[in-house]
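Section 5: illustrative case.
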């Protein structure tokens, strides 16, 4: 059953939480890391604090509802809490990129586009949270593995154990990521597209909203597929190089 509606947004509280976690990681957890990887590792740290909790929060929101859910269902109180939690994370991580990596245009655009979708769903349209929460689960289910893999990659040149962990995680992580982002994600987005194009949601979700959401989501999935494909190629080349090196 759903909880009582919140009388005020939890966005400021969540943002302060992620700010505290980021500063804790930057000044304590990774204080001995170099200037390049220290902010990047802190970004991974808040991603860890967001990803897995967001999955449990989203699952809880999806199963604790009093009415059947569709792609045009009104957002529940729990839906809104999850959206605010994720908005807070992306705002904090966007601030991180603007401060430390202002030239990383792709990630900045990704965060702005994601914030646009979450913000309009939460504060303007008030419908469609069901679809976004399912997509959030699919996006974050690889987060734990990806962040550990990324942190290991930062230190693999200096720490042998990190290099081994990076090599060990790479194939299963790429495979898991490929299935989620290359199969499950596109299938769910296809179902969304069919639903919206049928016109069922026209009186609940404005055309500009679901059209722009679909553009952002499809673009993100395509970029994810390209990203993992490039890493598969690099992994295959590295494996062949090591095999040739052993023979020589």
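Designed sequence:
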């Amino acid at each position: 059953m759903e909880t009582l509606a919140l009388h005020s947004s939890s966005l400021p509280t969540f943002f302060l939480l992620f700010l505290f976690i980021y500063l804790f990681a930057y000044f304590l957890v990774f204080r001995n890391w170099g200037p390049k990887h220290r902010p990047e590792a802190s970004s991974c740290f808040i991603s860890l604090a967001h990803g897995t909790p967001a999955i449990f929060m989203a699952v809880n929101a999806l199963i604790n509802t009093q009415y059947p859910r569709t792609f045009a269902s009104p957002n529940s109180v729990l839906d809104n809490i999850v959206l605010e939690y994720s908005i807070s994370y992306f705002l904090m991580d966007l601030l991180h990129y603007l401060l430390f990596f202002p030239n990383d245009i792709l990630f900045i655009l990704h965060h702005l586009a994601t914030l646009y979708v979450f913000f309009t769903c939460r504060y303007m349209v008030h419908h469609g949270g069901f679809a976004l929460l399912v997509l959030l689960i699919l996006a974050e289910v690889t987060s734990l593995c990806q962040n550990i893999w990324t942190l290991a990659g930062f230190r693999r040149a200096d720490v042998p154990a990190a290099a081994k962990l990076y090599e060990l995680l790479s194939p299963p992580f790429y495979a898991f990521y490929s299935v989620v982002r290359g199969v499950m994600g596109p299938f769910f987005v296809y179902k969304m597209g069919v639903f919206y194009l049928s016109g069922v949601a026209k009186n609940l979700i404005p055309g500009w909203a679901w059209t722009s959401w679909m553009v952002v989501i499809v673009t993100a999935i395509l970029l994810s597929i390209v990203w993992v494909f490039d890493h598969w190629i690099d992994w295959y080349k590295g494996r062949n190089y090591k095999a040739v090196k052993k023979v020589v």
